[in-house]
Amino acid sequence: MRLVDVHCHLDMPEFDGDRERVIASARGKGVVAVVNSGLGVEGGRKALDLAGRFPGYVYATLGLEPSNLDGEEFEGVRRLILDNREGIVGVGEVGLDYYWTRGERDREIQRGRFRSFIRLAGDLGLPLVVHSRSAGRYALQVLEEEGAERVLMHAFDGRVGWAMEGVRLGYYFSIPTSVWHSHQKQRLARQLPLSCLMLESDSPVLSPVRGERNEPANLVYALRKVAELKETNEATVEEETLRNAASFFNLGEVSRP
Length: 257
Fold this sequence. Notes:
By secondary structure, this protein is of the alpha/beta class. Helix 2 (40-53) runs parallel beside helix 3 (71-83), helix 7 (183-191) crosses helix 8 (219-230) and helix 8 (219-230) crosses helix 9. The relative contact order is 0.15. It has helices spanning 19-28, 40-53, 71-83, 104-124, 136-146, 160-168, 183-191, 219-230, 234-248, and strands at residues 3-8, 31-39, 58-63, 90-97, 128-133, 151-154, 172-176, 197-200.
């Protein structure tokens, strides 16, 4: 089995007690690479350190939670991305979050910063990982207006119809391990073409078992459920999602046996 966890947060405190065991467990379950999303300046630095400690296995993207409206943090993350262009495989997660951010003035700040990150990723030739909680429709609109091309919508929680607009634009969607029990994620996995899908854990959250800490080794749950929903075999889902992840993040080495 060869799986890529395209979105997780192994740098977070939830893994401070057993991070190396978690990574070893993922390797043992056929996860051949993990893309770790570092959030904020501190999280970004930890993500870079983690990628340095596990070269060729842990890869880093740098981003900022949309609900974090601190101006200094925003500028700090931009500088961190620019200073580490050669050490990261993408910008993100960045985007919009209308679940935690309700005021229109704050949402406008989010949209402006999202546009800035989209342009930064384009200037650097890096793919973009997008957070769009309760804002999928609006995030897709901004992405299209900005002419974004290499886009991964992570753990998309919007309607299938909106997601299909993303497919039309050539975007990818990562199906999280919570697809095991989430009817909304199951609808996405069933109706979106396999050619635009990847798999993610979003560890430590979105566990296939409600209430438990998630980890990349659980990616097999997403694989099994997507195969079931697509009425195909697991090997087909494994091969397609591996190819998509390796191409999107330019991880050529992970696609080779």
